[in-house]
Amino acid sequence: MTSPRASRNLALLVAGTYFMENLDGTIVTTAAPAIGNSLGVSPAAVGVTITAYLLTLAVLVPISGWITRRFGARRVFVLAIVVFTLGSILCALSADLLQLTAFRVLQAAGGAMMVPVGRLVVLGVTERKDVLRAIALLTWPALAAPVIAPLAGGIIVTVASWHWIFLINVPLGAVAIVAALRLMPRTEREVSERLDWLGFVLIGLGLGLLVGAGSALADGHAVADGTAGGMFVPVAAVAGATLTGLAARHLLRTRHPLLDLRALRIPSLRVANAGGSVFRLTISAMPFLLPLLFQESFGLTPVLSGTLVLFLFVGNLAIKPATTGLIRRFGFRSVIVAATGGAALSMFVTATLGGDTPLGLIVALMVISGVVRSVGFTAYNSIAFADVPDGAMTEVNTLTSTLQQLAAGLGVAVGALALRFGDVLQSASASASAPDAAPAFSAYSFAFVLLGILTLIATVEALRAPATIGAGIRPPRPPRPPRPSRPRP
Fold it and tell me: What DSSP string runs through 301-313?
């Protein structure tokens, strides 16, 4: 184990790379019109670069554990930053959409190795009693990046050009490389078993098709017109689910699986990756739906809309110093129940908002939503490793990273699907009522209510968990100072 200060610095380094990867996965959406105009294609066509990025992450994250054991964590982590930075430069130099898509794949290949490997090293050098603090540092990029991306992308495209969305990664990547060479401990390469090729192919194709179908649905490419393009989403979804099911069956039967699903028998790990995946999925949909609500339904400007969403990040930062204390005081189960229940409640309240709602109330709701999502993410990410034996940390880290990536990749798709169902129901309601009557509900209200109901699934699962879950890393409460004795008369 290294010193607490060295462990914290290493966690901050990995958090920085995590932020780069997450920001890059979402910021391109804002710049799509500018990129399309520059490359001579429609903004919708630029969506293929976003899909390619997410697909590459979904396919390559599962293999990160095997590569780490085979070549060593320090070497893989530094090389991953180099590949990500080089891919960013090439993206900025792209002359057409084909080049941009290819270089986005290269960029994502670096990102797929960067975060899981970095987190594995942090967990390896951190004592059990300090895991909560380390995970808290690693969690904020997943919360901050999707919230900051719309506003940051708009500002960059307005004051500079779309190329700087990628070029800004160059100095950050250079600093990260130097810091990694100084901070990352040298680790011995493990004698790794042969790669589970069948598992890799089944998982890669299955998750790739699921994420691809979800991305197409979220980007509006799914149309029910009977054409080949319109049939992609249902065919890809069915094929992806089938292949993923076959992959799960294979992984449970093979001796050295690419992903060890048997580890989910650990109660704390199962809670983190079952209810935790539902929580991540619904929370990931919020930064997608909120700007649409504020702009399309309320008529706000893009800048004001992005500023309101940014208050989610204010809530994230405000509660972050108190998260460890909350878990120490109340325990993982109580904190997860409160966080997931609070997140669901915030979604139900969001469904009641209207164009005449005072901005101050919206800001307060965004801050509260940011608080509960931050607490929930930290609790779930921490409890995943509470009861994992040291020898199984690599396998569990890879499994957790894969499921987190899948949940985040499908979150926007679930939000888009909920909104489309709401559109259908709103149209049906309007047709059944008087021509001049206002619709009984809006599509956005339906979407937020549905997300809230899904989030309650995580609450129910947490309520069923043992009260002592996560006790292995829950910090002990500090002892109370003794009361001063009063002198007897």
Answer: -HHHHHHHHHHHH
CA 414 – CA 321 distance, rounded (Å) = 31
Q: Are the C-beta atoms of residues 392 and 65 closer than 8 Å to each other? A: no
What is the DSSP secondary structure assignment for residue 297, as one 8-state letter?
I
Query: What are φ and ψ of residue 196, in 5° steps?
Result: -80, 85
What tokens does 325 get? 């204390």
Which of 294, 400, 410 minimizes the C-alpha distance to 357? 294
CA distances from 192 to 59, 63, 392 (A): 20, 12, 13
- Tokens 């293999």 belong to 63
Residues 6+ apart with CB under 8 A from 487: none
Q: Which residue type, as a one-letter code, is found at position 415?
A: G
Measured CA distances, 277 to 421, 424, 426 (Å): 22, 27, 29
Q: Residues 455, 340: contact at Cβ < 8 Å? A: yes
Cα–Cα nearest to 21, from 199, 144, 129: 144
Nearest to 136 by CA among 12, 6, 19: 12
The C-alpha torsion from 240 through 246 and 249 to 251, rounded to 10°, is -70
Round to whole Å and give the CA distance between 383 and 474.
Answer: 9
DSSP output for 98-115: HHHHHHHHHHHHHHHHHH
Polymer length in residues for the chain: 489
**Residue 121: both structure tokens together:** 């090293």
The neighbour count for residue 181, using CB atoms within 10 Å, is 12
Question: 71, 48, 148, 55: which is closest to 117 by C-alpha?
Answer: 71
pLDDT along the chain (489 residues), means of 10: 74 85 77 84 76 81 86 90 95 91 92 86 78 76 72 80 89 92 78 80 87 70 48 84 92 86 86 90 86 84 80 86 86 93 96 91 94 91 81 81 80 81 78 56 88 94 86 59 59
Q: How far is CA 371 from CA 83, 271, 374, in A?
A: 34, 21, 5
The C-alpha atoms of residue 172 and residue 269 are separated, in whole angstroms, by 33
Strand locations in 33-80 (E): none
Tell me which residue of 369, 351, 349 sits closest to 308, measured CA to CA.
Answer: 369
Q: Please tell me the pTM assigned to this model.
A: 0.78
